[in-house]
Description:
Blueprint: E1 2-6, H1 13-21, E2 38-43, H2 47-56, E3 60-62, E4 65-70, H3 87-93, E5 97-103, H4 119-149, H5 154-171, H6 186-189, E6 198-203, H7 214-226, E7 229-233, H8 235-241, H9 246-256, H10 263-273, E8 276-282, E9 286-293, H11 298-305, H12 307-311, E10 313-320, H13 321-327, H14 330-335, E11 340-342, E12 352-358
Parallel strand pairs: 1-4, 1-5, 3-9, 5-6, 6-7
Antiparallel strand pairs: 2-4, 8-9, 10-11, 10-12
The structure holds guanosine-5'-diphosphate.
Amino acid sequence: MRVGIxxxxxxxxxxxxxxxxxxxxxxxNYPFTTIDPNPGVAAVPDGRLKALAETIGSRRVVPxxxxxxxxxxxVKGASxxxxxxxxxxxxxxxxxxxxHVVRCFEDENxxxxxxxxxxxxxxxxxxxxxxxxxxxxxxRRIERVSRAAKSGERKPVAEAEALAGLxxxxxxxxxxxxxxxxxxxxxALGTLITAKPVLYVANVDEDSIAGGNAHSxxxxxxxxxxxxxxxxxxxxxxxxxxxxxxxxxxxxxxAVGVESTGFEEFIRAAYRLLGLxxxxxxxxxxxxxxxxxxxxxxxxxxxxxxxxxxxxxIAAEVGHWKDVxxxxxxxxAREAAKIRLEGRDYVVEDGDVLLIRFxx
Length: 360
Ligand code: GDP
């Protein structure tokens, strides 16, 4: 599961990516810096994990992670081969969700590709390219499916009819995610970029992180209209803080009037966007947060930890992280009847602590 970071050149994608992953992607003040996408891993901030690890006395603490990819090359005309051409489209298709970074900062030293800061227009430019790319995909699929329909099979006929409606929707400039999904379209929607869930990331200056500015407010309004998620971050502030020792970083944050640069919220929002929830495993050796798709069973969760545990699954002892922390230990939580035994089909909930019993 990975989140693709997209946006026009010079909006701060690489700066965001570097901060998320403290990795090697380079930020430079000119377009087309990053050609091949850089995969990177961000730890999901989770206060529950720390509390649980302290309660259990775990030696090692392992957070859940989200994979991000920095995808450059999106400019006006990209769907027709401008900029880095169509290459970026292939990279976005491989992602499960999209974080769309928009420039909400004014800085005359940083070139804007269209010569002005207007995040709503930027979003429209990017979305138009993505919709055009999808329209192209759907038209090619219609041709293919129509040929198959001539052979007299029923399935391609139903799909061709359904695709015609989707084509109209895209041709009107609307993203596939707002089209009512239907059975015959399931496979086609899986190949479309604008069917992926999206999160808008308003990148503001350090002075605007506390209250936002007119640009970020416009992005928030647009996100609300689309029913999309939105977070406000300051990539510049986050990058500057990374250079400072902990105490000074906290003072700096206090000076600009916030507790965080928005990155923690961003990572958590991306995690939710992927449809992930967290369960924990905890012993003296290691306390760990595991990402799992919402709706997964205990047996599936066991498989996240180890394939042997899934194969030999017997049952899971399950407690809520807060009950365990309040009881002070797993044994005391058990004594207080806060731990229950669940079978393979139990649907795991966010915040569950699992102790899996299995046959080897
Ligand atoms: P990308 O092309 O979208 O990957 O953008 P980069 O991350 O390479 O950033 C382009 C330029 O904008 C760099 O010089 C960054 O330092 C600068 N930049 C990024 N975020 C901010 C910000 O929040 N405020 C200001 N003033 N500059 C920023």
